[in-house]
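Support reply, case 0932

Customer input (verbatim):
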Amino acid sequence: MENTSHRRPAADTRAAIAAERRELAAVLDGLPPEDWEAPTLCGGWRVREVAAHMTMGFRYSLSTTVWELLRARGDLHRMTDRCARKDAAAHSTRELAAFLGDNADHPWKPPVGGIEAALGHDVVHGLDITVALGLGRRVPEDRVRILLEGVNARTLKFFGADLRGIELRATDLDWTFGTGIPLSGAAQDLLLLAYGRRLPPGRLHGEPRDRFVATPG
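Our regenerated output:
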């Protein structure tokens, strides 16, 4: 079974994006220095690399982005990894936090997926940080719902999420996805699964939960 999403007013989604960026900027600005060096759910990136990546779209012109992509021989993942590491080293943590908050209303969006994908980019990368650090931040329900409504087979394929034979069941709102063995958890944690993430232990419930536990380090 797949969810069918209905179109929300673009202004509502833009407002959600702006609020998410401002809130995450405040979280980042309040982190102690050691947390910026901690690993995240985004494989191989510390908090500082994730923050750098989240703000790349605000800081890079189209021509710079194309040049970086050419340098990476057309490999988008190689390009984003290189740029995140370079920018994380070039900017202070205060600057990285400010880039996010100062660009709360920036119209950037990914090349595919539209404005909802921009919200997903901010929410999921924010969770990459806050879940890994154990901060307990809960993304407001309206933002999570916008993203859950868009989860479908294409989402799973794009992010490499293998949920075959599993039914996701949110424990904090009325949402399910898929068919098969039940796997339950908070809606924002299930969203992370749909975006190809693995989670710290203890956040999921059901027989398949161990398949989705992050490896420490």
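We compared this against your earlier run and they match. Two observations from our side: Confidence is low (pLDDT under 50) at residues 1-5. Strands lie at 166-170, 176-177, 181-185, 204-205. Please reopen the case if you see a mismatch on your end.
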